Amino acid sequence: MRTYKAEAAQTPELVGADVTFADLVKAATIAAGALVVVSGGVSLLVWRSVWVELCIGSALVPYVILAGAMLLWLRRGVLWALEGMTGLDLDGDGMAGQPEQIRLIPVRAAGPLIDGVPARDLRYFIEVIARTGDWSVRRWEGCTMPSGVRLDREGHAAMITILKKAGLLVGHGERSSGQLVTSDASEILRRLGL
Question: Which of 88, 97, 121, 141 has the smallest count of CB within 10 Å of its CB?
Answer without folding.
Answer: 88
